[in-house]
Each structure stands twice: as structure tokens, then as C-alpha cells.
Amino acid sequence: MNNKAITNFVHQIIQIALSLIVIVLLSNCLIDNPIQAQSEKELKVMTFNIRYGTANDGENSWQFRKDNVVQTIQAFKPDLLGLQEALKFQIDELLIQMPDYSYVGGGRDDGKNMGEYSCIFYQKDRFNVDSTETFWFSETPNIVASKSWGNNITRICTWARLHNKFSGKDFYLFNVHLDHESQPSREMSTELLMKRINEKTLPVILTGDFNCGEDNRAIRTILSGGLIDTYRILNAKQPNEGTF
After folding, report:
1. String of DSSP letters for 68-88
2. Most buried in the list 45, 140, 153, 179, measured by CB within 10 Å?
3. What distance in Å separates the CA atoms of residue 36 and residue 131, rounded to the nearest whole number?
């Protein structure tokens, strides 16, 4: 592996470690039996923007970095994984190398196979999917490929209601990718997001690439809505720390 590839791999790991994951995870709501094995009690959740696979990245193009992506995911062994910027062929290649996972989600361009996904990977032996949906961050969220609020790129959220076969409990996971340019879009998107989350009556986990720092108004909207930034609970803020 050359120096540039190593740098890219390290960057990917740092990106995962510093990604802002906003999670509410109430253990007493998800687990009934206090004497269950520790592996059954815990949920390991990961968020990972893998960068779309058709980008002209030279030595860091998908064909050269995909094995590093797989190795990074396998090193963390998440029970649940929110991916951003994943194209269908990337998802297929990941599943070949990680057969313990399945996924839900659709491409942002047609709700099916076209465009980037904000999909949810889950461990098949631990979870069943009860229901799932993809909606668009726009004034018409149920209209495929719709966009509003100043974002030039279509933005989506995929959610799933999951049943934990180990604990017998259900919960939701929402996975998002907010706009990288438009602050009004980020703010309006998180308002819509929290409206959808607050319609749920079960615990919610939120993962994503929020394309903003944790002091941004969009993140404050999420936190003021009752979700908890578990990354920050576990890690004291460091100088010059990144969030995306």
C-alpha cells in the first residue's frame, strides 16, 4: 500500500471516529433480561460516508479503496451501520464480502436503484425489519427526487423499524445525509426529520453525515428535540476536533 492509500485509510478511520452520531438508546426499553450476555445487551452502531464509487479519485478510487472500507467496517463489527453516498454496485460489493449483513434503502434519484443511498446495514442474525421507508428532504417529502430549500443535490433519509431478536424489543433507526452547501436546507431538513422522529413511539437511533459542526443550528434542532449525542457523552471535546 502506498503512502497516499495509507493516508486515505487513516482518514477514513478518523472520519468514522469523529462522525457526529446523534443517538437515543434507552437500554431499559430495549432489553428485558439483566442477566443476558453483554453482547446481547449492547448495540454497536456505526456511521460511514464511503464516498460515491464513480468519483474520479485516482489512486483513491473505489476499486483501490473498497477493501479498506470492508476492513474498516469489519474492524468495528457494528450491529447496525448507516452508510452515506453508497451506490448500488458498492452496496452489492460490500454484501459479497460481508454476508452477515443485509440492508434497506433506495437510491435518491428514483427511490429504487438510481443515485446515492443513505441505506441501513443490519446484522441478519440479530434483527428483523418490520417496516422501512425513504423520504426526501423537501416540502414534498413523499415525492421521489424532490428538493427544496436551496439544495442543488437531492437529499434523503431512510428509516427502518427493527426487531431485536435477542431482546424481543423494537426500535427505529434513521439514517440521513444533509446538504453540504445550503444551511437553510440543513435547518429545514432537520426540522422535517424531527417531526418524523417525534411521530414514533419507540426508541430512535439517528446516524448520518450532517455536513456541519455540532454547534450548527441544524444539530441544535436535533438535540433540542430530545435526542442525545452519545459520541459526545463518551468523548470529551478536543481542540480542533472535526465532526465530518
Report:
1. HHHHHHHHH--SEEEEESB-H
2. 179
3. 27
> At residue 12, does pLDDT exceed 60?
no
Radius of gyration of the chain (CA): 17
pLDDT-based confidence at 15, cuts 50/70/90? very low
Closest CA to 210 of 184, 179, 182: 179
Q: How far apart are CA 174 and CA 159, in angstroms?
A: 4
Contact (CB, 8 A) for 161 and 132: yes
Residue 240's pLDDT band (cuts 50, 70, 90): confident
Q: Which whole-number Å values give the CA distances from 95 to 98, 122, 154, 239, in the listed order?
A: 5, 11, 25, 37
**Phi and psi (nearest 5°) for 176?**
-130, 160
DSSP structural state of residue 127: E
Going by their DSSP bridges, the two strands 127-136 and 120-123 should be labelled as: unpaired
